[in-house]
């Protein structure tokens, strides 16, 4: 009886483990055996016990394929999404993380470590350690230094850029020379376009000549804003440190505006006497005192000391050559040794006039 109960227990246990129909049939068979064993004698019970043992062995043997079947199902279980993330391993998403600034990459020394390309330092651990490094003072100092550092390739221009830069400089130089020629030779600005067309037709293969775009307006702008400005700066630098004289004259233009022209006369570094335009000033006070103030203001605006003025030339108008309140006398108050020279042509004309009056009337 004990063996029959044992077989029953095994059968019930197998029933719970397996779902196959064969198992259920075996269970039915096992369940039927105790009922027969209960009704049989001891011999029968012994025989039944032997048969039960055989069935139990069969049952055990039948359990083996069941285990295999369960093992075959296991892979389905293993395919379930059961991934254990290694949080200490470098992840490619860190490269694109804006919070990390794009400085993080995989370490060459250890594929599981991160590497800061800015600090040249490996970072071991999870994303938490990487973020902690990015927020560190050392990393922030390197970021600040990188922003203030100019890339080396910016100091070296590419050959194409250098070639284009050279070509542009050549064109600018040619335009400046052309504008200088127009200003020096007193060529009318209206003839600049015609001059440029002739030049382009004469040099059709010259790229610089073909690229010239010095129209009348552009040439005038170059003369006024580039050449005149630079010439005035150089003139002022020379007059600040050397003696010079000025020639002044008053005139009235088409708009009935009185202007005072100032020409500087000096000896340059090559001992050549030069007369250079210094200024054209509007005259609101035509008296000698007003003209003196204009001259003083013109020199002071350019930073030229009045003590460098050696002489002044003007026409023989009384407002200039007056012996009491003339312009020359007023300027002598600032420069006592100032040399005053009237207009030689006017003086010669006066001399000849008075000389002819002394001649006999019969001549
Ligand atoms: Zn760093």
UniProtKB/TrEMBL annotation:
Top-rank taxon:
Eukaryota
InterPro entries in alphabetical order:
DUF4371, RNaseH-like_sf
Residue ranges of every copy of the DUF4371 domain listed in the record = 233-325
The record's section on Pfam families has:
DUF4371
* Chain intervals for the UniProt region annotation (Disordered): 1-87
Q: Where is the composition biased (Polar residues)?
A: 63-72
Biased composition annotated in UniProt, kind: Low complexity: 19-38
Name of this chain's protein: DUF4371 domain-containing protein
Organism, by scientific name, is Artemia franciscana
């Amino acid at each position: 009886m004990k063996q029959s109960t044992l077989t029953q227990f095994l059968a019930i246990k197998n029933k719970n483990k397996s779902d196959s129909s064969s198992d259920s049939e075996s269970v039915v068979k096992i369940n039927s055996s105790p009922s027969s064993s209960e009704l049989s004698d001891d011999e029968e019970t012994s025989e039944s016990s032997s048969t039960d043992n055989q069935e139990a062995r069969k049952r055990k043997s039948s359990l083996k394929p069941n285990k295999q079947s369960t093992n075959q199902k296991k892979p389905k279980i293993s395919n379930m999404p059961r991934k254990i993330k290694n949080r200490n391993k470098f992840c490619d998403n860190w490269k694109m993380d804006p919070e990390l600034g794009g400085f993080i990459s995989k370490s060459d020394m250890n594929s599981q470590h991160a590497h800061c390309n800015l600090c040249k330092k490996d970072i071991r651990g999870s994303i938490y350690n990487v973020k902690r490094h990015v927020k560190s003072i050392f990393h922030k100092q390197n970021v600040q230094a990188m922003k203030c550092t100019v890339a080396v390739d910016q100091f070296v221009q590419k050959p194409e850029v250098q070639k284009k830069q050279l070509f542009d400089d050549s064109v600018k130089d040619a335009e400046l020379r052309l504008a200088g020629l127009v200003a020096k030779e007193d060529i009318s600005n209206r003839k600049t376009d015609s001059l440029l067309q002739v030049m382009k037709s004469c040099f059709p293969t010259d790229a610089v000549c073909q690229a010239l775009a010095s129209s009348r307006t552009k040439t005038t702008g170059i003369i006024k804003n580039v050449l005149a400005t630079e010439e005035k700066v150089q003139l002022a630098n020379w007059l600040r440190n050397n003696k010079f004289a000025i020639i002044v004259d008053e005139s009235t233009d088409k708009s009935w505006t009185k202007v005072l022209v100032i020409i500087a006369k000096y000896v340059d570094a090559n001992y050549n006497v030069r007369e250079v335009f210094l200024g054209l000033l509007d005259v609101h006070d035509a008296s000698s005192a007003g003209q003196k103030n204009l001259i003083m203001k013109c020199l002071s605006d350019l930073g030229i000391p009045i003590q460098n003025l050696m002489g002044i030339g003007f026409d023989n108008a009384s407002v200039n050559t007056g012996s009491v309140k003339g312009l020359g006398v007023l300027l002598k108050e600032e420069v006592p040794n100032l040399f005053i020279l009237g207009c030689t042509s006017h003086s010669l004309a006066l001399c000849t006039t008075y000389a002819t009056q002394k001649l006999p009337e019969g001549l």
